[in-house]
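Data availability excerpt. The first of two example chains:
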Amino acid sequence: EYTTWSTKELQNWLDAHNVPYPSNTPSQAELQSAVKAHWDSASQWTADQFSKAQVAFSSYKADAFDTWDESRLREFLLEQGVVNPSGTREQLVLLAKQKWRQYSATKSAGSFASSASAQASTAVYGDSWQQASKSVSSIAALATDNTAATLDDTKDYVYSTWDDNRIRAYLQEHGVVSPPATPRNKLLAKMKETYISATSPIYKAWSDSYLHQWLLSHGILKDNATKRREELLTLMDRYYYDAKTSVWDTWNDSQLKEWLIQHDVVKSDAQLQREKLHKLVSENYAHAHDSTWAAWKDSDMRQWLIDHGYLRSDAQKTREDLIRLMNDKYTDASARTAAYLTWPDARLRAYLREHGYSDTQLPTTRASLLQEVRTRWVQSSGGASSLWRRVRDIFDSGIEIAEDKLGQILEILTGSAEGAKEGAKAGAREANEKHNAQKVEL
């Protein structure tokens, strides 16, 4: 399939797999030759890898990865056995798609399928009792930040501190019969099924300590000072998000229909159920002009068009004019499909808090939130890509890992020259001993 790839796609694949190629404008033939030489080794599967992939990929299509951010892609690739996945977001997307295609091809060929199916089911879901009684978190769920996978029944829920009699009474009130001799772990499993299904949003079922930990880990709280449950829930109302939730998941039926009408997807007299409305919005949202350009200020669009020669500096243009020009001239597909464009407002706010904003500094409109997130998103993406290129260039500059090279790398990673020198001395000795025996991988 790589024979139909563009030069950029070939380079992305080679970079994602740490395969060297000529740095001075390599030809299409040279790039294809390099990909061909490493294609088979990058495409081989073990039975264990196929078992994991069967669980992870069964819920996705290849184009799903286009909407993922870098951290989610890296987590997913790590689960698929990619050692320290690095590179730009485009390279990570390409690598995830390749893994998906490899899985699809292996599945179609029938390899590993019969044995892997049972192994994957048992590995992820447990035995028959566990499948029936426990809230399940699969490898795919772990890769997509499924919060419930990290909660402990014995301490992380509101009911975790209840005694057995209170738990039985609650279950009985909700029509769940538990024999008197039912052990506590099974009572808690039934509580998870019953209590959480009746609780919305889900975090209202969490214990105070877990609410506090979630807010602390997402940069909303800055210290361990105790807060009342009401205060914690108020913060959760403002900042909580599920990694699988998109902005339209928070809309009611009227909002879904209104968006579809405004974007000429359905007519105003259309009679559609919520499931159909939701599906139509999810299929069209990313392609709508205002979804992409809402993250750009007028001044940003104007400056980009001027810098690239598409607009005179003295030209007077309305926002609609600027959007029309940007949509026609701006060709960076990754920026136009950036994951944050579909995030709910709560996740946008949480992202900004994690990047240094205080609560009082947060914008109040979705457009303003998107514009601030975009600024930091571009800075983060550019920094990661630049860092990777600089580290790779240092390693590519010679065979021996000299003390000064490790010092340079540590300085890049820490932003400080002091301290890097001392760490480099010990690291250089150890690294040079190993270098001739195996390839150094970042």
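And the second chain:
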Amino acid sequence: HAHKAWTDQMPALVEAYLAWKHNVPSDDGNTAVPYIFHVDIVRIADFKCAVAIQQHPDEPANKALLRAGLIGCSPLQPSIAIRLECLELYHQLRRHQSSLSIQAITKVLCALHNV
């Protein structure tokens, strides 16, 4: 179920990620009133609770998150999001130290955030 949900929204997520990565302004012409949802955000140095995210009608929540430089931990109704810089840091660390596991970086982030 989750795999299909991620797969179905992948084209929209790729487009949103590339726009974020290359600082392309988001001007999709959508004038509809956005829906507001809240997520807790994991960043490299801190953790923010209940951050408001604007989601356009018929837009996946993770596309809205990607516009803000985030990716949700769930494909449909994310309540926690990770800052893309955290994932980029992990990617670069892993490139230079292939034995670094996702569990290790998760433990580091938990230690930094006193979780």
